[in-house]
Design goal:
By secondary structure, the chain is an alpha/beta fold. The chain has ten helices and eight strands. The strands form two sheets. It has a four-stranded mixed beta sheet, with helices on both faces. Helix 8 (185-194) packs parallel to helix 10. InterPro entries: Ssp411 (IPR024705), Thioredoxin-like_sf (IPR036249).
Length: 258
């Protein structure tokens, strides 16, 4: 009985120690992308292989360190990958050794690193990644972290129409639009000046009723509403920067502000 209690105590201490470090999320890579979009955090992918010396040292001294855990859990969606299980990676081949990949929700590279790093250097790496993310987020259309009802309240106060980017997180064309058009400086200047913008995930169950109201059942739709939530313009598909600005101008004409 005493031996059993000692084992239970030991396991409790071990679990407590692990819980102080980075918490790695469960699920598929697509699940991780959705978590990143929902929580507004970049993705940290820790790639290691059993028996790798640097990887084992990182787990022992850094990955489950409390300071590291506090910082990464607050700022990243973390995902652990066993290099031997390459099917869970967003790319074809896992690298050798211990690697750290940082991506945004659209699978765009932010940065990458490898090898052993102490606690101070590893947190410094994370801070540098966040700085790059903040600079990138200032580019292009600025999406508000609000649902439709919340943004319509703001629209009524500011007398502005609403732009909705209806996306599907695992759609390649949506990713192309994000990289080449949505984050474009001229597109951002135009939309930020004239619209309140939000994003809606077509795969989220809570969005089905709202999208059905506007006749939308898939991603790559762009909706323009007045402050009462009435549809004034709708367009669909991949386009270039000039096309999206042109569609925005058509919406403003219908709204009566151009």
């Amino acid at each position: 009985m005493r031996g059993l209690l000692l084992i239970v105590c030991f396991l409790g201490i071990a679990i407590q120690g692990i819980s102080q470090g980075i918490v790695f999320r469960n699920g598929s890579f697509q699940d991780i992308l959705r978590m990143s979009m929902r929580e507004g955090k970049p993705i940290f992918i820790h790639i290691s292989k059993a028996g790798d010396k640097e990887g084992d040292l990182m787990e022992k001294n850094v990955i489950y360190n409390k300071k590291v855990g506090d910082f990464f859990n607050a700022n990243f969606i973390s995902f652990h990958v066993d290099a031997d299980k390459q099917e869970v990676l967003p790319y074809k081949q896992a690298p050798e050794g211990v690697h750290y990949w940082f991506l945004n929700e659209w699978v765009e590279w932010i940065d990458r690193a490898e090898g052993y790093k102490d606690v101070k250097d590893f947190i410094a790496l994370g801070k540098a990644i966040l700085d790059k993310c903040q600079k990138r987020e200032l580019l292009g259309i600025q999406f508000q972290n609000k649902n439709l009802e919340e943004v319509l309240k703001v629209a009524r106060k500011e007398k502005k129409p609403v732009f909705i980017d209806v996306y599907k997180i695992d759609d390649g064309m949506c990713r192309t639009m994000e990289k080449r058009v949505i984050r474009d400086e001229k597109v951002g200047e135009f939309f930020n000046a004239h619209f309140l913008s939000i994003r809606v995930d077509v795969d989220k169950e809570e969005n089905v009723a709202v999208l059905k109201k506007y006749g939308v059942s898939k991603g790559m739709y762009y909706l323009f509403l007045n402050e009462d939530g009435e549809l004034i313009h709708k367009t669909f598909g991949i386009m270039d920067t000039g096309d999206l600005i042109f569609e925005g101008k058509k919406a403003l004409e219908k709204y009566g502000k151009l």
